[in-house]
């Protein structure tokens, strides 16, 4: 699992960067990456001075830590880079280092509080923190690492968390049963009746409490979370019944009744599952008719095309993001180069170069760094680069709209295909049952 936290740097930026870049902590400086900031502290300062509104923060420090033994230094570093690129959007200089000097591998990301693209401040707040945590969690899932949902697990023991993750926690089951009862209840009394049918004893008093069949103690609703107090339950039922119902036209997977334990144990559930399957089968067949699909081969071809289109758009987005990143960096280095070229020209003409260099050390260092980055690459003036960046941003927006549409279509097509496969298997099994015995 990985967790993230951040804090501000209000003094000694250089010391903070030097600390996270310590070779003893970063495998001899192999696990260090910078985005647009080889001379980080100077470039951070230069960008910050361009801001129209002063900020007390020199930079921000984001930490991403992993469980001991769950990842390698190289993989953690790769995840950290992807996290920084996605969270900061190619608009803020940053330095990323991966520390391996403790039992748990962790990433340090120090990033500028001011964007080098528009010189606006970063908006780090609760929403930003939640978004960063979600991005980190998604990356962890992609790399096969565990994730602990925030807030929901405060105060839980490791045994209880592990049990809930596997679906065996009795508290998780109680919450699920309450949610199900709320979703089907017309009022609070109906809710109480449904909980009793689900084998729960409900105790009313100062706090509503529930006891499952076979359990010794009651569990107060408030210990499950703020959504499970009596007041919240009443409110959830009232809001659900008050809101106009929209017909759900989404196609869901068929239930494998033969191998479903719940269906085998409950005749009522088995009856409901059969009706549910009839509805989903009808929607599946309507989808096939609407899309002129009459054979399984045609279905496979249609699914393959959607997945191919989705993969192509995903690659286009990655390519556009890389172009945006390259263009914004060129803008930054071009702006520094243009602004400091007169200082460098004066240095070249100065009789006492040593004294001039001492007085203008930062400007000359930044100019030389920018010139090095632009060597053989500068082909456009700054204004044209900005137009190109704006065009790429619009292109990404359009591609992302197509990406979301294709993602939904691909998921729907996967459900259709699995439903058709199950229907075909059921058809074959019925044919076998009708075959006469010899």
Automatic annotation (TrEMBL):
Keywords: Coiled coil. It comes from the Bacteria. Pfam families: Relaxase. Residues 382-426 form a coiled coil. Residues 19-145 form the MobA/VirD2-like nuclease domain. This is Relaxase/mobilization nuclease domain-containing protein. It comes from Ructibacterium gallinarum.
């Amino acid at each position: 699992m990985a967790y993230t936290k951040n804090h501000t740097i209000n003094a000694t930026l250089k010391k903070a960067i030097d600390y996270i870049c310590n070779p003893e902590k970063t495998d001899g400086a192999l696990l260090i990456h910078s985005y647009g900031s080889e001379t980080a502290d100077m470039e951070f300062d230069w960008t910050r001075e361009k801001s129209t509104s002063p900020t007390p923060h020199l930079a921000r420090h984001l930490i991403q830590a992993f469980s001991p033994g769950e990842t390698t230094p190289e993989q953690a570093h790769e995840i950290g880079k992807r996290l920084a690129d996605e969270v900061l959007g190619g608009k803020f200089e940053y330095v990323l280092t991966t520390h391996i000097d403790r039992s748990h591998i962790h990433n340090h990301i120090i990033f500028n509080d001011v964007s080098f693209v528009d010189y606006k401040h970063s908006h780090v707040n609760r929403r930003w923190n939640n978004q960063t945590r979600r991005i980190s969690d998604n990356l962890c899932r992609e790399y096969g690492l565990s994730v602990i949902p925030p807030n929901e697990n405060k105060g839980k023991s490791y045994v209880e968390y592990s049990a809930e993750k596997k679906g065996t926690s009795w508290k998780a089951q109680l919450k699920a049963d309450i949610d199900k009862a709320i979703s089907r209840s017309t009022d609070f009394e109906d809710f109480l009746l449904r909980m009793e049918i689900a084998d729960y004893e409900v105790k009313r008093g100062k706090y509503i409490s529930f006891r499952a069949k076979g359990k010794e103690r009651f569990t107060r609703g408030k210990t499950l979370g703020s959504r499970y107090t009596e007041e919240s339950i009443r409110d959830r039922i009232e809001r659900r019944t008050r809101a106009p119902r929209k017909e759900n036209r989404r196609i869901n997977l068929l239930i494998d009744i033969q191998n479903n334990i719940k269906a085998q144990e409950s005749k009522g559930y088995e009856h409901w599952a059969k009706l549910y399957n009839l509805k989903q089968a009808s929607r599946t067949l309507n989808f096939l008719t609407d899309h002129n699909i009459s054979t399984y081969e045609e279905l496979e071809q249609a699914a393959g095309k959607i997945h191919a289109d989705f993969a192509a758009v995903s690659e286009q987005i990655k390519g556009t993001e890389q172009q945006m990143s390259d263009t914004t960096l060129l803008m930054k280095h071009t702006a520094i180069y243009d602004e400091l070229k007169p200082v460098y020209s004066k240095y070249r003409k100065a009789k006492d170069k040593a004294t001039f260099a001492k007085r203008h050390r930062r400007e000359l260092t930044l100019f030389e760094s920018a010139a090095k980055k632009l060597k053989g690459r500068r082909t456009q003036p700054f204004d044209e680069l900005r137009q190109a960046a704006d065009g790429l941003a619009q292109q990404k927006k359009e591609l992302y709209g197509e990406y979301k549409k294709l993602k939904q279509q691909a998921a729907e097509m996967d459900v259709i295909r699995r439903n058709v496969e199950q229907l075909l298997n059921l058809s074959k099994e019925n044919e076998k049952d009708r075959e006469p015995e010899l």
